[in-house]
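Exercise 3.2. Students should predict the tertiary structure of the chain below and write it as structure tokens, then compare their answer with the key that follows.

Predict this chain's 3D structure.
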Amino acid sequence: MQPYFREAERELTVRRRFDDQRCSIAQALEVLGDWWTLLIIREAFLGVRRFADFEARLGISKNILSQRLKHLVTHDVLAKIDAGEHGPRYEYELTARGKDLATVLTALRQWGDRWIYGEGNEPLVLLDRKTGRPIPRLRIVGEDGEPLRGSDMVPWLRPDER
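Answer key:
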């Protein structure tokens, strides 16, 4: 392999930290920023609670799963609960912080449904429990309830951040 390709490959495998950036997106990525973490959270929303079940459903190695679960517990996205009746047996459940990611995962899923799978080919459709109908596409709305486009929004830095 040529040196250029080795360097490019190394750059792809080295994860950059965002600790020094005062940015909500960068800091959220410090907690959620890899695919395994988001897939673990997805499975937790689907009711998975046990280590072995996460491992089996995701096909993830034990060491990676252990690291990610520990990370999510440290950041209060999941809680590690002793659910053993005859000795310790741990399960993981979403905390309030974790449950608050429902909107993020729904937006990501809807983006994938629209731009990767296409309408009518969605692998999973979320239904409203009350109506049995698919939930509507998430939208950013203004105070008047009308949808906003990207061009309708203006970024504003707090004066102390300038």
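Discussion points: The mean pLDDT is 88. The longest strand covers residues 78-82.
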